[in-house]
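[worker-b] picked up task from shared queue
[worker-b] task type: protein-ligand structure
[worker-b] ligand name resolved to fe (ii) ion; SMILES cross-checked against name lookup, match
[worker-b] sequence length check passed
[worker-b] input payload:
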Amino acid sequence: MVERGKLELRRKIIQCVNKYLIFNKKTMTKEEMIDLLNKDLTKEYAAAVQYIQHAAKVTGAQYQSIQKELIVHANEEIGHAVILAEQIASLGGDPTIEVDKRYVSDDTPEMLKQDLEGELDAVKRYKERVAQANELGEYGLKRALEDILIMEEEHARDLQAALGM
Ligand SMILES: [Fe+2]
Ligand SMILES: [Fe+2]
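[worker-b] inference finished, payload out:
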């Protein structure tokens, strides 16, 4: 009898905890998503600017093919910026014109490392963003972010290959 009472009490406690967890589940708001996408947008602008500058500055015969690739990346980052700006506007937000920090160097491998760091950060951010868009029930946004994520992963691989990683 005592055991049964204990079990019943345990069941009730678990029920209470579950109710509490469901009630307090932190779901992201549309406004928070707009802010995050605007931060991503500042980084897409910055990546495009950085790639254009780096592509012009790269030296060394062994870096000729990545030099061409950096220009492709620059154009793709602009494409990502266009998509993000459209998505922000369609969520009811105001797309930013702020540009995040750009990194420069006079050394080619150093430039490529700077670019790679940006890409790895982008991959991390867009993985989070895809999950957040899903949580928000914004499936069109989720699909758009997945497409961007796939390209950022490719960009990272291009740079890793050029750096012999
Ligand atoms: Fe991008
Ligand atoms: Fe990229």
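[worker-b] attaching auto-annotations
[worker-b] The mean pLDDT is 93.
[worker-b] releasing lock
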